[in-house]
Design brief:
The structure is a homodimer. Chain A is α/β, with parallel strands linked by helices. In chain A, 41% of the residues lie in helices and 18% in strands. Chain A is globular and about 60 Å long. The interface between A and B is large, with 38 and 38 residues.
Chain lengths: 318, 318
């Protein structure tokens, strides 16, 4: 497998990305290659600096840099030789099988949508987050920020995307979808949730549990929480905030230690024709390593094909 | 002062409410009276059962019961002799100065709006929640569920209501308002936040900080978080969920122990012509006591008058 990494993405790039790539290299088979996108002089000197063996790496010289504040579309059109633009070019031409970046996440989303493209039938691709369950295992929540304003049919599709991720990447059998809401009764919520509930309640495209409140985020009542990207982003950053206070106050036990983002890598982009993972801006080497391994796992799960098949069925049934 | 309590409201009523009233009675001046609304036979026997002195209490016989699942408006029209309907009748006629209930919160909101009425100029009254700051003091967040779908001008008014509460009830000088959002930059967020930001950014009606993320909910960057009632409800129930897991796992220290809802009583309804507090359904005696004391404090702060004055100024400036 050929695994792409944006060496210049993230607050601690290129040190953290190079170190993360070296750590990931140790975890994968010798048949796999990691493609490093970035300025070749920087990559080579960093690899040398940490005494890493460059076997198993392919460097794709990409001298231009996309900043965190840059407008995504502009970054792509004006910097075709940036690490992120080249990564998506390689992904599109299938010279790599997966690509991940901890850089400008808007640029990564735009890159994915305009290079490998959105899967036919998918209205909006989505990013997802994981939430450790108190009883073991992981819940997922989507969307987490890519789509702050959405229509009910988009939320419906998120339920399909999330179900496939839960089933084929997290290996949950017949995962349950909950509509994140402010009450459990059928008629509860804002207009979006009320409409989405009506669309979802008799769904044959996924296993719908019903409305579910945020007090159940850490329980095992459902496997997937669907919500608009505004709500999902608020939820995840709030978890991070409370976790970091607990960390500061020495209150983290074996359960809460599972909240450390480093263990998870990043968020896949679901609904595009390729395996793409967006990492946390503050990713350190361990987080980068996990992001790389996650992009590999995403590709190997065959989820893109599963989504294509599901969307085909969904489109035909409408 | 004459303080009203819905004896029949809450999951543990009437035991918890009567006990809470007796506890509150010990905290207030002998010139104050607590008006107990509910079936007089039940109230009298419960008071006798716990050996409480009935001096200082006025019982207002209200034999009808409004259930938690009942539709608010129906409950009022069909049960004019319920504890909650009678409470609001007394509040309207100024036979009591404040009223609180841990019962059907929808019915309490409807009761407030149709008895004492919304303050002129207020588009939608709001309920608020408190969030303990790590550095001491309290943040507030509004709305927390009453208004799941709102327009930007309603959010603007929540900033006024919240500022007055923070200043006159919590004694914060020149409190800062943050617009709860998924990014700090000006153009971030969903359509509601983007429009609200434009309305708020040059406001002279309150001290606007700007956009603020949920990772700052426990910090002292702002004093007031404004958001739609859907988002606020998700935020508060998520805090409760994480707190209760911490409690279960013995991870609560001096800071997190301040998350115990029992200490706060309930949520005031801001924007109506009277001092009304809605309690948590699961309120125990201590929570009821604090709800009663909070409704007293709300009345004494004179916030209703402050809101009237502010809304008058706001309406004239438009």
């Amino acid at each position: 497998m050929k695994i792409g990494l944006d060496v210049m993405g993230g607050d601690f790039a290129p040190d953290a990305t190079i170190q993360g790539a070296v750590l990931a290299r140790e975890q994968i088979s010798s048949n796999d290659r990691i493609f490093l996108f970035g300025p070749s002089d920087i990559i080579e000197s960093k690899l040398k600096e940490i005494g890493a063996d460059s076997t198993g790496f392919t460097i794709v010289h990409s001298p231009e840099i996309v900043g965190m504040g840059e407008r995504p579309i502009k970054a792509f059109t004006q910097k075709p030789n940036s690490s992120i633009a080249n990564g998506f070019k390689y992904l599109k031409s299938k010279e790599i099988d997966s690509f991940s970046s901890a850089g400008n996440s808007g640029a990564a989303m735009v890159g994915a949508m305009y290079s490998v493209n959105t899967i036919q039938g998918v209205i909006r691709p989505s990013t997802l987050g994981v939430i450790p369950r108190e009883n073991g295992g992981m819940n997922i929540i989507l969307d987490i920020g890519t789509n702050p304003d959405i229509k009910p049919d988009v939320l419906y599709q998120f339920a399909i995307l999330g179900s496939l991720y839960s089933e084929y990447v997290l290996n949950v059998k017949n995962p349950k979808v909950g509509l994140l809401n402010i009450g459990e009764e059928n008629e509860k919520g804002n207009l979006l949730c009320q409409s989405a509930f009506r669309l979802m309640k008799d769904s044959k495209d996924f296993n719908f549990f019903g409305n579910i409140e945020s007090r159940e985020l850490f329980s095992d009542k459902v496997d997937i929480f669907v919500c608009d990207g505004f709500t999902g982003n608020i939820v995840l950053k709030q978890i991070e905030a409370m976790y970091s206070i607990m960390l500061r106050r020495n209150l983290v036990d074996d359960y809460f230690s599972r909240f450390d983002y480093e263990n998870y890598g990043g968020s896949p982009i679901l609904g595009v024709n390729g395996s793409v993972v967006i990492g946390h801006g503050i990713s350190n080497a361990k987080a980068i390593m996990n992001m790389i391994l996650q992009s590999k796992q995403l590709h190997e799960s065959g989820i893109t094909k599963k989504i294509k098949r599901a969307m085909n069925k969904y489109t035909q049934s409408k």
